[in-house]
Automatic annotation (TrEMBL):
Source species of the chain: Chryseobacterium taichungense
Keyword Transmembrane: no
Top-level lineage group: Bacteria
Pfam (any one): Thioredoxin_8
PROSITE patterns recorded: THIOREDOXIN_1 (PS00194), THIOREDOXIN_2 (PS51352)
Protein name: Cytochrome oxidase Cu insertion factor, SCO1/SenC/PrrC family
Keywords: Redox-active center
Domain Thioredoxin residues, every copy: 340-489
InterPro entries according to UniProt: Thioredoxin-like_fold, Thioredoxin-like_sf, Thioredoxin_CS, Thioredoxin_domain
The keyword Oxidoreductase is annotated on this UniProt entry: no
Length: 489
């Protein structure tokens, strides 16, 4: 009998959402159509406060053809999705792909999922059949959001959204919203109050799908006349008040989709408020603090702190947030952000250099280390290297106490080698070490522990081996970074 393999890998140690002091649990069993015995399924948990992957559990197929997961956590709800890790004889690599959408779980769920998946270049093409305790909400979510045949007729008739040339939002009633709400209400008696509330908000906030993108498009085409811009701002805010509102409704607070859509709307509001100013991300904290309240404000700020470049004033912002955070969970999440970064030097991390040799990060202790994490095809990574990293490299080229580690999360060596030759992401120099994570890619322990979920990402480590900053805005600004490095080297 093949032993079931379960391995829990923390995506970042400061999360604390999955501690040894567990209080809640749920069980997931998966029957994957056309699975082979070498397959591994990875159940990834998403924390509902940070809205980030918080941990993953791996399972091999047992003798009955089932992948089993038993999850213990001190959360009573959250989200999960599943990835398939399968060996490809053509590339001779274990390749992974996401095979489910995100689903919301509750404690004591005990689910059997019959899953079939068709590989796609873009998106997920899967069919689901759920059985067991709590299965109704899963099946309904799949029917509501993954049934293309149900959705297709309405897409032909409905335009997501548009604006007039003077920024008046053209509101259209999406008929598919009513269809979804009716489907939900017909199943209400089969759902918990929590599941019903979250699904209802997911539906309400699913449209308009491209609001922020369309608003940005029209915003950039506003005439430069100051009076006209003022008129556009008035029109925009008067016509979009009802779009993705921030509320204290239970469903809103626990709907991942609602929080994300509200956040994007807020960013758009800020860009419009300060247009034509371009760099407005640093205004987000003050805007949220003034314009929202209660637990909704706490969740939006925790999501912001965890998912965007950190302000150079992050310590004072966290201190200020502590003066008005009131919920037990919100305060706990805030305190995690105040904790020191996990160590990188002294942990035994190793990477592969361009000659195929192992490079140990611990060997660099005694130097100030700037780690630039990138992946091929990442346009922001190219811009960061051109505008910041390459200039820093030249500025400190003669300083033996400083080194840049250019780290690619590309899994295939041949693609990475081609990337090196382009000179777009890095270069060969005396103060640069070019390495990549190898076959495990983004699942490298260094990437997971430091919670690197987007690229480019930048980490600064001082000569003692202490991690000083991860994705702080200072690291993305050439002048500020140079000033900081001059105090460290």
């Amino acid at each position: 009998m093949k032993t079931i393999f379960l391995a829990l890998s923390l995506f970042f140690l400061t999360d604390g959402a999955f501690s040894q002091d567990t209080q809640h649990s749920f069980i997931m069993k998966v029957h994957l159509k056309d699975a082979v015995k070498e397959d591994t399924l990875i159940l990834r948990l998403v924390d509902e406060w940070t809205l980030r992957k918080s941990s993953e559990i791996r399972s091999a197929m047992d003798h009955s053809g089932i992948f089993k997961f038993h999850i213990n956590t001190n959360r009573s709800r959250g989200y999960w999705d599943i990835k398939l890790l399968r060996y490809n004889p053509l590339t001779r690599l274990r390749e992974e792909r996401t095979v489910t959408s995100l689903f919301s779980w509750e404690e004591n769920d005990d689910i059997l999922l019959h899953l079939s998946n068709t590989p796609e270049m873009v998106g997920i093409s899967s069919k689901y059949l759920f059985e067991g305790n709590g299965s109704a909400k899963y099946q309904l979510r799949a029917d509501l959001f993954d049934n293309e045949s149900l959705r297709a007729p309405y897409l032909k008739e409905f335009k997501s959204c548009s604006f007039t040339s003077d920024m008046i939002y053209i509101q259209e009633v999406n008929p598919f919203i009513k269809v979804r709400v009716d489907m939900l209400n017909n199943k209400k008696n089969e759902l918990s109050e929590t599941a019903y509330s979250i699904l209802k908000k997911d539906i309400e906030y699913s449209s308009p799908e491209s609001f922020s993108e369309m608003a940005d498009y029209y915003m950039q085409r506003m005439k430069s006349n100051e009076d006209f811009i003022d008129l556009c701002k008035i029109n925009y805010f008067n016509s979009t008040k009802a779009i993705f509102p921030v509320t204290q409704d239970y469903g809103f607070l626990h709907s991942m989709l609602a929080i994300k859509k509200a956040q994007k709307k807020i960013f758009t509001d800020i860009r419009m408020t300060y247009y034509p100013e371009s760099n407005v991300l640093n205004r987000y904290y003050d805007y949220i603090k003034v314009n929202t309240s209660g637990e909704a404000r706490e969740r939006l700020l925790i999501h912001y702190f965890n998912n965007y470049k950190k302000s150079e004033h992050i310590d004072s912002l966290l201190q200020d947030a502590g003066s008005f955070f009131q919920t037990r969970e919100g305060i706990a999440e805030l305190n995690k952000l105040k904790s020191p970064y996990p160590p990188s030097v002294g942990m035994g991390y190793s990477f592969i250099d361009s000659e195929g040799k192992k490079m140990n990060l611990d060997d660099l202790k005694g130097k100030v280390i700037l780690i630039d994490v990138y992946n091929p095809g990442c346009a922001p990574c190219v811009r960061l290297y051109k505008n910041v990293i390459s200039k820093v490299k030249t500025k400190f080229a003669q300083n033996p106490n400083f080194v840049i580690v250019s780290l690619s999360v590309e899994r295939k060596n041949d693609i990475w080698q081609k990337t090196l030759k382009t000179g777009l992401y890095t270069s060969f120099s005396s103060n640069t070490i070019n390495v990549f994570t190898g076959e495990i890619g983004k699942n490298h322990p260094f990437i997971l522990q430091n919670n690197i979920v987007s690229n480019p990402s930048v980490i600064l480590i001082d000569a003692s081996g202490k991690t000083l900053y991860i994705n702080n805005e200072i690291l993305f600004d050439y002048r500020k970074l140079v000033t900081l490095l001059q105090t460290l080297i």
